[in-house]
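Narrative of activities, Objective 1.

The group set out to show that a structural description can be obtained from nothing but a protein's sequence at a throughput compatible with the screening campaign. Below is one input-output pair from the validation batch, recorded exactly as produced.
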Amino acid sequence: MDTDQLVRLLIAGGLVLLNAFFVAAEFALVKVRATQLEELIEEGSRAAVVARHLVRHLNEYLSACQIGITMASLALGWVGEPALAAPLRQAFARLGPWSAAASHAVAAPVAFALITFIHITFGEQAPKGVGIQRPVGTALWVAYPLHLFHLVLYPAIWLLAGTTSLTLRLMGLPPQASETSTISQEELNVILAASHRSGLLKASELNLVRNVFRFADRTVSEIMVPRVDMVCLSTDQSFEESLRIARESGFTRLPAIEDGNLDNVLGYVHIKDLLLLAGRTDADIRHIIRPVKMIPETKPVERLLREFQQDRAQIAIVLDEYGGTSGLVTLEDVVEELVGEIWDEFDSARSPRIRRTEAGQYVVDAATPLADLEAELGLRLPPTEFDTAGGFVQGSVGTVPRVGDTVQMGNYDARVIGMRGRRIRTLLLVPRVPQDQQEEP
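Output recorded for this entry:
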């Protein structure tokens, strides 16, 4: 092997390393988080400052990486194949009575295969793995050289970015104007689920984050205690009767209504005020009624939480579109949407709203919000005016439901298995069997 061939091989090796540099830089800049760099900047790392600049101008520096990868790959194809083919021709010629044409015909494809293998393995795959698995260290290592390369080739990068934007506009697509990438809620859910499976997130942490996502979309009508389940104190009751109802309910705050009329809520009564009046001859709940907040059932739960905090309130009466009482909601109801059920010493133990049976069916509390049911079972229901599973079934039946009534809910059959008066109490969701899997009679 002469000096010229050795120089060509060294140049080819250098081009492979150069390609590896740009590939590692590209994946490291995409993978590294700004918070990781901020920590290093606080520790005094100058390279981290440059790396943060690269991340903040990600599109420009990714374009620089693409230019570097393209230039290195083209140069490698131009220099590398001949550099390997020459010594291979000489080696094949020594193996036997090869003619010059035959040795060249064999050496050329072998050299192409070798340079392709080296390029993919050491110039693409290996540096990609380094950039993904060690993004912080790689980003710090490539920061200064890549920044210098960007400065030198800035006109070409600017021209490339401008041409790309023009091409996208001609295709009817918006140019990539933003420097930071965003993640949709669906993508974030996938990432969170993967983190939970890998053990990085506990189940409680995963549920809390998912509850936060759903929290912003909830309205008061979805979480309130419905009118028929409200426990109230009425002005036409004796004080002793009101005290008994309050003690048996276990609630701290109870709505006070005029003469048994749920649509005429006067305010609410605190159990402490009620107990202070016990034993007095002039005891009357009218003397201890406190003002209560009135809200529409369409109010977002997120806004209600802020109002509860600002007003230092704990309870609100929910009104329908006609001004009648639709239900009530407490601060505890709102907080439970984020952290799950909160039990105190007066709460009686009850089964979860959605319970899976050994047969793969689900026993569902009819008061379960449809949003929870869709999230838990992956249902895809059509848009509906109803907020709960029981409301959906009752609306689908079209009449006063009875035990045994069945309607379709996505890929499940929902069967009424429990009633409380004219209201659905419990449902049984049975997975639907596709027609092509059903046994023919």
